[in-house]
Amino acid sequence: MKEMDMEKEKNLVFATQDGDVKAIEEMNDPVFAQKALGDGVCIVPSDNNVYSPIKGKLAVVADTKHAYGIIGEDELEVMIHVGIDSVELDGRGITSYVSVEENVEVGTLLCSIDFDVFKKENISTETAVVITNKDRFEIVSKNLGLAKAKENYIFQYKRK
């Protein structure tokens, strides 16, 4: 995992969780793996806290607390989808700390997941972080491998 000088580098999306960052194509969810919702990465978390990967405003907080949409200051739209089939938990095992229209910074705590609940219900904790307005933005590089939330970037993007 490469370190970046945040003052020199722009258009970075940071790790939402501590864990192993993999290419989105490796995610065990075909919708994300086929990039149907956008390009990005998958994080296999080693920590249960999920943080904002960009500075912006929350546009979506799912009622089931498993998905968050953030619009960045440059209009980049990022979705954080916690777990595979986690919507089936109907919010159980996820504690959300934010609401729609709230401004967030890189590192704002979005939610915490209870690994025991996910394991008991046989729900994967893999987390997708994708650009949903792929018609306007594209990823120019991905930073795969072990990441520390709030510190390591997971991908760099540019406007098309």
From TrEMBL:
<keyword id="KW-0418">Kinase</keyword>
<keyword id="KW-0808">Transferase</keyword>
<dbReference type="Pfam" id="PF00358">
    <property type="entry name" value="PTS_EIIA_1"/>
</dbReference>
<protein>
    <submittedName>
        <fullName>Glucose-specific phosphotransferase system IIA component</fullName>
    </submittedName>
</protein>
<dbReference type="InterPro" id="IPR050890">
    <property type="entry name" value="PTS_EIIA_component"/>
</dbReference>
<feature type="domain" description="PTS EIIA type-1">
    <location>
        <begin position="29"/>
        <end position="133"/>
    </location>
</feature>
<dbReference type="InterPro" id="IPR001127">
    <property type="entry name" value="PTS_EIIA_1_perm"/>
</dbReference>
<dbReference type="InterPro" id="IPR011055">
    <property type="entry name" value="Dup_hybrid_motif"/>
</dbReference>
<keyword id="KW-0598">Phosphotransferase system</keyword>
<keyword id="KW-0762">Sugar transport</keyword>
<keyword id="KW-0813">Transport</keyword>
